[in-house]
Amino acid sequence: MDTFSVDIFDPKIYEAQRRPFAEADSLPAWCYTSEAFYRREVDRIFMKVWNFLGRTDQIPNPGDYYALEFAGVPIIITRDKDNQVRAFANTCRHRGAMLLEAGEGNCRAIKCPYHGWVYGLDGSLQGAPDMDETRGFCKEDYGLVPVRLETWGGFMYVNFDPNAEPLMDYLGDLPAILKSHDLDGMVTVRRQEYLLDCNWKLFVENAMEGYHIPTVHQATISKHKAKKPAVQDVKGEFVLLYTQQKGSRALMPGDTGFPEIQTLDERAQNGSFYPNIYPSTMFCCTQDCMWYLEVHPLGPNKMKLIHGACFPKPITQRNDFEDVVKRYYKRWDKTADEDNSISEVQHRGISSPLTRPGRLSFLEPLVYTIDNWVLDRVLGEKTPAGSGIYE
Ligand code: FES
Ligand SMILES: [Fe+2]
What we know:
By secondary structure, this protein is α+β, with helices and mostly antiparallel strands. The protein has 2 domains: 3-49 and 169-390, Alpha-Beta Complex (Naphthalene 1,2-dioxygenase Alpha Subunit, Chain A, domain 1), CATH 3.90.380; 51-163, 3-layer Sandwich (Rieske Iron-sulfur Protein). The protein has helices spanning 15-18, 30-33, 35-46, 167-171, 174-177, 200-207, 213-216, 266-269, 313-316, 321-350, 365-379, and strands at 51-55, 64-70, 73-79, 85-89, 103-106, 110-111, 118-119, 125-127, 146-152, 155-159, 186-196, 231-232, 238-244, 271-277, 281-285, 290-299, 302-312, 388-390.
């Protein structure tokens, strides 16, 4: 289909993607390459949902802050002097200058680099020089614009939509499913950042299917072969892949690591959980640790990936932690390179004007589910494909 002659937001042209899974096509290429499609995703998805931004232990002390841009919006996350974690728009209430450059740090107050207005870490305007002749000006009215931030299990989520449902409603059944991993009691031990030349959906689709494991991960984890997933409905804005197996999935075959998390329930002792919290937050909860894939969309053709690793706190205090954790890092670094590079290879192929939608294997139901979730929002129409556990 010629992209220039079609209205890419006309629901009728997605008939082949909206069929039942076994009959459906993959998404047309423009969903991954078009600037207009991406803008619509930002407006209708990233500006509306709970966006994952790592853990509160990245800013452990009062005065710590983390400034970043998410989906084009500069924000600041702070821990104020009462230990409360908050988020604000990174823009001065005087004439809009950006207050902090991207990065992490600690400060007593945030001072605008332009005319020196000063804000507390709770967002209140504390100093505004030479404003005494400005009629009706009241400092209380010019605090930083708050951004909703809520946490679950030590993880931070922000939402740019003041009317969005609370985070816990958005997550539905997921916190209960992962309860026995005691995510609150974990500590982030590493955050690795990668810039990828691919659309964010290609990366998410890859992470949620096991079809590529024997080929892409031939040299590393090809023994983790996927089985045909069976689906159970759940409540919440996520899909979850559960794979039954004994032993940590965070190690290369043959390596040994840390003992199992002590609080695991029976299901968690016998398998690993891979939820994708819509649209793009992937957790991997295995028997001895969890790792996450934090996706920041940067445009139709670019994304940032932050690969975070978390272990139970007592494990991180062991004398042999630094030595043993290297085996986990080896596994993650190698497989991240494999997944990152195949996602870029796919993006290069899909950017060809001659590419066409394809068909999906029975090992790729979540590609279908996630893509239809995106289409629901971008097109503004609902289909039955929603949340579920795939075992
Ligand atoms: S723009 Fe910040 S003090 Fe003027
Ligand atoms: Fe992979």
